């Protein structure tokens, strides 16, 4: 299939190659030549499809965000209990970043460079749909089913516990002496330990 004079299969091959390089070398360490080599094309063809590494990364990020946000909205808009939503969110979030570990640092860097512009780029006209979850938390507090907690604080705490190990990976590995396999195993375990910690913290 050809779109705007560009072959879609070649574009997809470049995007997949770029993901592999970004995962291996990070955003800063990746070079366009590395990506061209991984895709099995020359650098000139790569630049024909994507003018710069930043544009290439933005395309990958947009694809990931467009798949991730609807899944998160499905969780928060579902009929699951508060505990089940916390468990499902943590699993979805950690799974997504395990597949794309270069994302958290990219998000932090872009938010620092262009806060408002990046948020619009990230969400477009669609925001995470949290209203139902917030109402659910407030109702549970009123019924004394859970401790007094501000819904936003609960959401921020949950997100922070999920994302921090990815942002602090070099420090955690240096302090703990973990190798890559051990670090990944620890992250897999956090899909259970983080929701357990959050749920226990609000339990009445």
From TrEMBL:
The keyword Nucleus does not apply. Residues 31-50 bind DNA. Pfam families: TetR_N. It comes from the Bacteria. GO terms for molecular function: DNA binding. The keyword DNA-binding applies. InterPro entries: Homeodomain-like_sf (IPR009057), HTH-type_TetR-like_transc_reg (IPR050109), HTH_TetR (IPR001647), Tet_transcr_reg_TetR-rel_C_sf (IPR036271). Keywords: DNA-binding. Residues 8-68 form the HTH tetR-type domain. This is TetR/AcrR family transcriptional regulator. The lineage of its organism: Bacteria, Pseudomonadati, Bacteroidota, Chitinophagia, Chitinophagales.
